[in-house]
Amino acid sequence: MKKLALFFCLCFCLTGFAQKRNPKNKAIFLEDISWTTAQQILNSETVVVIPLGAASKEHGPHLPLSTDFIQAEGLAKKVALEKNVVITPTVSYGFYPAFLKYAGSTSTTFATATNMVVEIVRSLAAYGPKRFYIINVGVSTTPTLETAAKTLAEEGILLYYSRYDRPSFDKAEARFRTKAYSGHADELETSNVLSLRPDLVNMTKAVNDSSMKGKSGNMTPIMIEGGNLNKSGINGYAALGTKEKGEKNMTSFAHELMKEIDSVATCSLPSAKDRQAEYAAYEGTYEDATGKQLVISQKNNILYFVWNGRDTRNFFHLFKDAPDYFSSMNMNILFVRNDAGIVSKAWCQFRGERFWVTKTLK
């Protein structure tokens, strides 16, 4: 009963705060509020929605580089009208390596894209929320989100995300395709942007291009060995796009998003992995060549560090990102084991400084 009352209180607060952007909104956009307001609404009952869409990635000669970003924001606005959630600013960079031969396209590395999502979620989870949903407008981003979700699950945080190849989403879009074949800057994406930002679309340059059919890998506007020639940057039937299709498709896709957000709000959270025995191997004092010390300790299943006498344990701790590799706001540490499998030294990066430390004998 107490939990239910807290939920209704949260819904009331979110509805009140949402009025400043759009009187019809049920959600609150994080960027619109102060930290003191955020303090009131970010808690264990909050579902946080993160739009993810490239703001600079090729979508043919007829669509803007911000096509994914526009779609992510458009979907977020539809979610805001229906769901009592907190919506973060749109993440506008990610893993899009297949388009880098087209001028203006940008991409991070796989690791950076994964870590960016992990670190955004960790920051917000520290205030209470443990349920996160990403509006994922992309295909190559899916493996990075899958990796991020696995990392966060071990910390007791739930991360889920939309993906085009999920049957429900594929079915939601199939009704509005004139041609079965599609993939990128195609009939539906063109339609979506026509419904959201028609001023940025030049339909006189929209062409139908199926040169990528049956192929995979990097596309290129000029022939490059190992690449797939695609002069337009389009993969599908862009010339068939219409505003009406876009309006219907965006509504249909948003409907599927909201069903998944409902699931995120009610399903069980993952259990944080107990790492106390594992972390014991790293505990101890380490020294660099100048005698500066790195002290590693743990408490309540969390690993901490003190570097050169600077104690920030009440502010920053170490997160495990890979076997023997940890990160925090200031310090990254790769622990190194000897032939016997015992941690004996570590490579560290403290802000811009890089150095080795050796574990001292107890």
3D architecture notes:
Strand 10 (284-287) and strand 11 (293-299) form a beta hairpin. The strands form 4 sheets. The chain has a 9-stranded antiparallel β-sheet, with no helix packed on it. The protein has a 5-stranded parallel β-sheet with strand order 1-3-2-4-5. It has a two-stranded antiparallel ribbon with strand order 6-9. It has 9 helices and 18 strands. The protein folds into 2 domains: 2-266, Creatininase (Rossmann fold, 3-Layer(aba) Sandwich), CATH 3.40.50; 276-359, Lipocalin (Beta Barrel). Helix 3 crosses helix 7, helix 3 crosses helix 8 (243-266) and helix 4 packs across helix 5 (142-153). The protein is of the alpha/beta class. The chain is globular and about 75 Å long. Residues 1-5 have low confidence and may be disordered. Helix content is 31%, strand content 21%.
Summarize the topology.
Blueprint: H1 2-18, E1 28-29, H2 35-41, E2 47-52, H3 67-82, E3 86-87, H4 110-125, E4 131-136, H5 142-153, E5 158-161, H6 167-174, H7 187-196, E6 208-209, E7 219-220, E8 228-229, E9 236-237, H8 243-266, H9 276-279, E10 284-287, E11 293-299, E12 302-307, E13 310-311, E14 319-322, E15 325-327, E16 331-337, E17 343-350, E18 353-359
Parallel strand pairs: 1-3, 2-3, 2-4, 4-5, 7-8
Antiparallel strand pairs: 6-9, 10-11, 10-18, 11-12, 12-13, 14-15, 15-16, 16-17, 17-18
Helix pairs in contact: 3-7, 3-8, 4-5, 6-8, 7-8
